[in-house]
Specification:
The chain is of the alpha/beta class. 23% of the residues lie in helices and 40% in strands. The chain has a single domain (2-137), classed as D-tyrosyl-trna(Tyr) Deacylase, Chain: A. The model has no long low-confidence stretch (mean pLDDT 96).
Length: 147
């Protein structure tokens, strides 16, 4: 799985002029499922995300995790994280998992975060989404379960 995490003071996802997911302080997580990803991959990524110390403590140091701050996660599917730009100027996305598999693993990742007591909102898989966010820091991290 590939994930792009952004620490936010707020974020939302809109589909067809309707807000489908919205959080206050926490993490906006763009997720891309790869063909080899399994439920175990999604569970491991969720555990990693829950423990990452990306939030400031009283001394202003990034020492607190999402679970320690009580923050929420907005999880948005984004197959374009699998972009292959090695040939020409038009990215290829054939490296991403197919829709049925991708949706199942994406849903499992969101459920795994919920099981770790993290409030989770999601986008709508496969939809044309507008994502609005206020990046806090800015703090942005790239995670790849293959690495």
């Amino acid at each position: 799985m590939k994930a792009l995490l952004q620490r936010v003071s707020g974020a939302s996802v809109t589909v067809a002029a309707q807000t489908v997911g919205q959080i206050g302080a926490g993490l906006l997580i763009f997720v891309c499922t790869m063909p080899e990803d399994t439920h175990a991959t999604a569970d491991a990524l969720a555990l990693k995300v829950s423990k990452l110390r990306l939030f400031k403590d009283d001394a202003g140091k990034m020492n607190l995790s999402l679970t320690q701050t009580g923050g929420a996660a907005l999880v948005v599917s984004q197959f374009t994280l699998a972009a292959d730009t090695s040939r020409g100027n038009r990215p290829g996305f054939s490296g991403a998992a197919g829709p049925e598999h991708a949706n199942a693993i994406y849903a499992r990742f969101a459920d795994s975060l919920r099981k770790l007591d993290i409030p989770v909102e999601t986008g709508r898989f496969g939809a044309d989404m507008a994502v609005d966010l206020v990046n806090d820091g800015p703090v942005t991290l790239w995670l790849d379960t293959e690495a």
